[in-house]
Every structure is written in C-alpha cells, then in structure tokens.
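1st attempt posting a full record on here, be nice pls
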Amino acid sequence: MPVTFSCKVIGDPKPKIYWFKDGKQISKRSEHYRISRDADGTCNLHTAAASLDDDGNYTIMAGNPEGRVSCTGRMMVQAVNQRGRSQRSTPGHVRRYKKTTIPDTEGEGRKALLAIIHMPFI
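the predicted structure (as tokens):
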C-alpha cells in the first residue's frame, strides 16, 4: 500500500529539508523512499509499498541559518490475516496538524525562518 507524508515548509532563506525514520536520516538516494519538494514548499516522503518494516516515527526537520523546526508523525503498519482483515481495528486515516512558527524577534530586518508544517498521523 502506498503511503505519503506531506507538509509545507516556507522560509527565507530557503530551508534545507531532512527526513528521519526512528531518528535515523533517510537518504535522498533511498530505493525504498522517494523524497520530493515542490516549488510552493510542499515536501513529500513517499513509499510505493509500505511493509511492516516501515512502522515507526517519521520526522521532517527544516533548517536555515536562522533556526530549525521539526514535526513527527507515526506510521502504523498492521499485518493482515488470511481473510484480508487487520488483526486489530483501526480508526482509519486520521489527520492532525501541527503549525510551527519562528518569528523574527529581533525586528532588525533580519531574514527569519518561517516554517509551517502539516504532517498527517497515519
């Protein structure tokens, strides 16, 4: 089953983006995960076929010279029995949103990081 974590990151200067699974950085050259970033700041972490090994906590970190922000979501992967049903009931696809903002508190015209991150919990 395909799974995508998606969020929007905005910053000036443009933040660098890093994805982690259970605290370990996901390589941009990963064969299992596809990492992308659109012109509007939307960042995606996608896997075409989630497996039990994909169960875990996924974190995106955005950073530039003015600061860092991060957001974590959990992917829960469940085994399916022979009848095609999961072994425990699931609430379905649940989305919770976290908004993180770091304002320019100096007021001296410095370029500040502003990151708005939306990360679905699955």
